[in-house]
């Protein structure tokens, strides 16, 4: 009697488990359980496959959204006014970036050039990275920044040439007569640094003796009552 009661209890527990799992109770519970497990495994595999497919679809959607964003941006840029504005902004960024590297080299690492909303600024690394407007620069600093911009522009123009042209020389014509001694010294040091780069010949036309004496190779124009002659001085 006890064995029968125990067996009935086990059968009731099995029936309860089957009912909870929504598995029909059959005459052979072992076979029914095996079938239920196989179905559950198949359902699990389907869910796993669908989850992987969902992940792939999410990645594809994100890629399409990025492409759509680029397409919208291009559509905006390619409108007549926007395209011109975008092109000029890109050209200005490249110009200032190139000029900044040259200015840093010419100033011995002291200055960098940046711009913001059409305004130019110099970053002074000898003054804790202070950012100064170009209107506050001294004469020598203005010369350095202007020369850096001119050199960067010449390099960009050479890069856009279809004949792979290179600008191998630069000539500065006067503009030094009104500079004070300190500014003139800065200009001379800048020109010496420029020549030390070795990528181009630097020529200077000047009547300022203090500047001319800093240039190693000079051609002096001498005049008399009847003619003028050119003499090479220096090494």
UniProtKB/TrEMBL annotation:
Pfam family for this entry, one: SbcC_Walker_B
InterPro entries: P-loop_NTPase
Recorded coiled-coil stretches: 30-67
Keyword terms, alphabetized: Coiled coil
Quaternary structure and interacting proteins, as annotated: Heterodimer of SbcC and SbcD.
PANTHER family: ABC TRANSPORTER ABCH.3
Protein family (similarity comment): Belongs to the SMC family. SbcC subfamily.
Name this protein carries in UniProt: Nuclease SbcCD subunit C
């Amino acid at each position: 009697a006890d064995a029968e009661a125990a067996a009935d209890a086990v059968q009731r527990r099995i029936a309860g488990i089957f009912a909870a799992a929504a598995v029909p109770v059959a005459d052979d519970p072992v076979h029914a359980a095996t079938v239920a497990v196989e179905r559950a495994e198949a359902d699990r595999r389907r869910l796993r496959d669908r989850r992987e497919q969902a992940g792939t679809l999410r990645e594809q959607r994100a890629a399409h959204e990025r492409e759509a964003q680029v397409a919208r941006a291009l559509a905006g840029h390619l409108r007549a006014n926007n395209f011109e504005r975008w092109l000029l902004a890109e050209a200005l960024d490249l110009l200032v970036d190139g000029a900044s590297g040259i200015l840093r080299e010419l100033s011995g690492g002291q200055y960098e050039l940046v711009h913001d909303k059409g305004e130019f600024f110099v970053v002074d690394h000898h003054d804790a990275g202070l950012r100064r407007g170009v209107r506050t620069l001294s004469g020598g600093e203005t010369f350095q920044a202007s020369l850096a911009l001119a050199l960067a522009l010449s390099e960009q123009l050479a890069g856009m040439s279809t004949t792979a042209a290179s600008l191998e020389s630069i000539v500065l014509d006067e503009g030094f007569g009104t500079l004070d001694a300190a500014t003139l010294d800065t200009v001379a040091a800048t020109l010496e640094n420029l020549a030390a780069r070795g990528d181009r010949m630097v020529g200077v036309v000047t009547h300022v003796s203090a500047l001319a004496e800093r240039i190693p190779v000079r051609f002096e124009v001498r005049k008399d009552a009847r003619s003028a002659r050119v003499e090479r001085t220096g090494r």
